[in-house]
Design goal:
It comes from Cordylochernes scorpioides. Belongs to the PITHD1 family. This is PITHD1. By secondary structure, the chain is mainly beta. Helices cover 8% and strands 12% of the residues. The chain has a two-stranded antiparallel sheet with strand order 1-2. The chain is globular and about 35 Å long. The N terminus is likely disordered.
């Protein structure tokens, strides 16, 4: 078993590739509610080696909330998240996770979530938010649009 100190960050491509869920995201069927530009929510999911490419981004059209429905192509274990964003005024401050809830709406999201995070600005992708493995150990794929 290996242990990694909080101050140590593995920036090697192998680290990101080994643990990235990017290849398991059904990007064609990702939905983002409240996006200013239709389809821009799909573009924020990037391969590890492209994580610092800020040309494509998503902004909310009417308020400060976005809601992503992210289907996977297979069963995944979500162990952690990295949220790369802008400065304090453009970086999300909170995030809620909902497990296996296809076609989630803002009304649905007012209910109980599986996990909630207070986020901190991070332009480099060095902050990782650990998920509750017991809760998010088997996030199942969605069988096509519903």
């Amino acid at each position: 078993m290996s242990h990694k100190c909080e101050d140590e960050h593995d920036e090697s491509p192998e680290f990101g590739i080994q643990y990235s869920l990017y290849t398991k995201i059904d990007t064609e069927n990702v939905e983002c509610l409240n996006e200013t530009v239709d389809g821009s929510g799909k573009d924020v999911f990037k391969a590890w080696e492209n994580r610092h490419d800020f040309e494509k981004f998503v902004e909310s059209d009417c308020d400060q909330e976005l809601l992503f429905n992210i289907p996977f192509t297979g069963t995944v274990k979500l162990k952690g998240l990295i949220i790369i964003g802008g400065e304090e005024d453009t970086h999300p401050s909170r995030m809620k996770l909902f497990k296996n809830r296809p076609k989630l709406t803002f009304d649905d999201a007012q209910g109980c979530c599986d996990q909630e995070f207070e986020l901190h600005p991070d332009n480099t992708g060095t902050l990782e938010y650990n998920t509750k493995l017991v809760v998010l150990s088997s996030t199942d794929p969605v069988d096509g649009p519903q």
